[in-house]
Amino acid sequence: MAEETVLRGRWTLEDRVAAPLRELPFEVRPGTAAITVRLIHQDGVIDLGCAGPDGFRGWSGGARDEYTITTAWATPGYLPGEPEPGVWHVWLGLHRVPPEGAPYEVTITTSDTPPPTPAVKHPPASSRPARRDLPAPAGTRWLAGDLHAHTVHSDGTLTVPELAALAVAQGLDFLAVTDHNTVSHHAELPAASRRLGVALLPGQEVTTDLGHANVFGDVGWVDFRRPSADWAAHGGLMSINHPLGGDCAWRRPMPPEARPRFVEVWHSSWWDRTWGAPLSWAELWRPDVVPLGGSDFHDPAQHKTLGEPTTWVLAEDDSPDAVLAAMATGRVAVSAGRNAPVLLRVDDELLALDADGTVLVRPDGRRHAMRGDHVRLPAAPGAHHLESARNEVIALCG
Predict the structure, then answer these.
(1) Burial class (CB in 10 A: 0-12, 13-18, 19+), 73
(2) What is the spatial order of strands in the sheet that 21-28 belongs to?
(3) Residue 380: partners with Cβ closer than 8 Å, 6 or more residues away
């Protein structure tokens, strides 16, 4: 038996200003096996999510207008499990509402008969390019990765296994899967990691109108409705994403004592790296910033390439825990790609590789011309970077 509830209305610009996230309650009776929610709206951008009596059950933002939750399966972005009886809420994020308003219709269907579970498709394993051999202390190794990528669990087009296979083909050792405002992808990471041979870091991109941040680690769902200073309260590592990235730029208030060390200084939107604003922003954010890189990959058809930029970590092994531990200590570098010039820091020494004819810029602004493809120099506290002869940033390290 199925029951249907239809909710209609019109969101106004005043509604969005007063409270950008709206919760529409509905009742789920005992014995319900499936819940389907469908949103129709005219104009604007309305995000979609869900909470049950026991808390968060999923988020798809503006990527979907319909989702289903059952005991055994759920639409990507949502958590499968028993539709517990009680009061549920459809979450509607009023991301963009035009001055004339946005009419909407929400249809909620509950049923005691679940739909068939979709079949799982496994992509073939990818061949991996030869790993780059970078000098490292005994018992450690420099690993190549990408700290910002999306799947079908938010607004990406690839499944978790498909994204993992692409990471291997790109020669990456690790990849953080950071879908927006959800952790539904976390359950798929271990199996895909084992099958395809790449470390998949659990992550989530905490996404709001005024800024995005990645939280890395298996720390449970981070409530994007809370103040930014609370986002890392459950543990994990928090990074401010693309702080100067257009309408996704960071504009959220955060007291200086709560600011995370990690900043996605190098994002795929940094088209012209002679533009020094990302570095200047990071210096003002806090003096001991650890610069990170992320492609923000969504779709092979887009201009973004997985692993460009490449983030390097000096880790004891290639497990997700080891990668996160290396990041936590700041053993991180960023380059334009896996085979591009790189600037590495080990203790109090810098190593510039394949960087002949570039310029090292120290934290105090002093500059040194690099001659040779294997240059060692003493390091100072703070972030360093390499520039080309035309002042284009080509490598970073904390």
Answers:
(1) middle
(2) 21-28, 86-96, 45-52, 55-61
(3) 362, 363, 364
CA angle (264, 162, 188) in 5-degree steps: 80
Of the options 3.40.50.10470, 3.20.20.70, 3.30.70.3040, 3.20.20.140, the CATH number for the domain spanning 141-340:
3.20.20.140
Interatomic CA distance for residues 338 and 172, integer angstroms: 8
Predicted model pTM: 0.96
Closest C-alpha to 140, from 313, 311, 316, 312: 316
In this predicted model, what pLDDT tens digit does every residue of 154-208 receive, in sequence order? Answer: 999 999 999 999 999 999 999 999 999 999 999 999 999 999 999 999 999 999 9
Q: CA-based angle 84:89:95, to the nearest 5?
A: 145
Going by the DSSP 8-state scheme, the letter that residue 302 receives in this structure is S
| DSSP-assigned letter for residue 186 | G
DSSP 43-88: SSEEEEEEEETTEEEEEEETS-SEEEEESS-B-TTB--S---SEEE
Digit-coded pLDDT (tens) for 283-296: 999 999 999 999 99
Determine the Cα–Cα distance for residues 137 and 133; give it in Å rounded to an integer.
12
CATH class of 2-111: mainly beta
Are residues 330 and 381 in contact, defined by beta-carbon separation less than 8 angstroms? no
User: 133 in helix, strand or coil?
Assistant: coil
| 67 close to 48: Cβ distance less than 8 angstroms | yes
**Continuous H helices in the chain:** 13-18, 160-169, 189-196, 277-285, 320-328
Q: Where are the domains of the chain?
A: 2-111, 141-340
Give the other-Cβ count within 10 Å of 9's Cβ: 16
Residue positions counted in the chain: 398
- Assess contact for 264 and 243: CB atoms under 8 A: yes
> In DSSP terms, which residues pair with 293 in a beta bridge?
266
